[in-house]
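Entry 14. Ran structure prediction on the chain below.
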Amino acid sequence: MTTLSRVRWLLPELLLFLDELLCFYYIPCMSPVSHREGMPIYNQLRVLRAERGLSRVSLANLVEVHPQTIGAIERGDYFPSLDLAFRFSDVFELPVEAIFSRKPFVPLSAQLYNKEERS
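Output, structure tokens:
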């Protein structure tokens, strides 16, 4: 086996290793959430994932981020960029404001219960 063929054979493995290494060191170093007093960003990612049967890993693959990023956004530890918010919007086929909001989302059970009360 020539040196060039060895490099071609090892290159995909090396790229995967470097990707994992960069993700491992990049995620803890994400820019911290710039909390503005009284201005949190709430999201529906966990609910939307459950409705569609998506794991964090599969959603991360669809929007091209690390699975830890999905968890950090769901917990409110990290606010997504505008570009990432649009990628979520494309995956779920919903407007951005249906996924992210400055106001807490009303739980579905409360929405259904209140509608039944009015009937």
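The radius of gyration is 19 Å. Will compare against last week's run tomorrow.
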